[in-house]
Amino acid sequence: MNPVTVGVLSFLIVGGVTFLAGMALLRWWPAVQRERLLARAAGDGPASILRWTGEPGTAWERTAERIGRAVFGSPEAAPSRYRQRLIWAGYYEPRAVLLFIGAKVGLAIVGGAGYFLYSTLALRVVPSPRLLAISLILSVVGFFLPDFWLHNRTKVRRREIVHALPDVLDLLMVCVEAGMGFDAAVARVAEQHRSPLHQELHRMHLEVRAGRPRGEALRALGTRTGVDEVKAMVTAFVQTEKLGTPLGKTLRVHADSARVQRRHRAEERAHLAPLKMLFPTVFFLMPSFFLVTMAPSLLGLLRLLKALARH
Description:
The chain is an all-alpha fold. It has two domains: about 5-20 and about 55-155, no CATH class; about 160-265, Up-down Bundle (Receptor-associated Protein). About 75% of the residues lie in helices and about 0% in strands. It contains ten helices and no strands. Helix 6 (about 180-190) packs across helix 7 (about 195-210), helix 8 runs antiparallel to helix 9 (about 230-245) and helix 9 (about 230-245) packs antiparallel against helix 10 (about 245-310).
């Protein structure tokens, strides 16, 4: 292949990857999001989390939604396991499942067909079973790549919820013992928006204000988070409301338990840290140590063997 053509193609590939990486940073990394650089208007306020936006914002989202609708037709026809996993990750809109499935199918097509066309048209490679196998592998990787991203997203969100649970329970306990009702205490705590748990409490508070029964809203809170600690807290709140026991005492007990569990998790990670550092030390530092300590002796031994071979 002509070196000039190879250079041009390499430049286009590197430039395209750099452009896509920059767009991804502006889209998903909070530290450099484009909205942080724009001034907010005086009358603008946050939209209600109980409302869905009308249409996808970007061309990528519209394309993914079209692919998802071509596969399943409507959000209700999509598999329920995808909807539940997206809810655990914090995506509640009905069309999110279509976007997710469209992304899976689109990445599978781009990964497999893109490599096959690039190899046959640009690199002039004759189609062979090896080329088809690589294209199939890339297609499978592209199909399961959104699942890997969703799993990591759900894992991070659950960890943030569990980490924020003791502080939220402490604030609820202080508000309730100060004389506030449960709904008012939840509204006061949910105003902070520090973690996904605060957002879930805010959503639950809006659902109660919209007319949903409190017990049903609490159970929906536990289902949306998918965290066992939150489900236990919700069950305690529902039982307290039914039996009429003091809510402040229940909050105090659960806050102490959540705080102890968080300390145990921190101690467990601290004990596992030396074990996790062992493998990088063995694979990266030990070869350098052996090279520094044994290289002079090995060089001297080689010189001695060369001198003996000459004589």
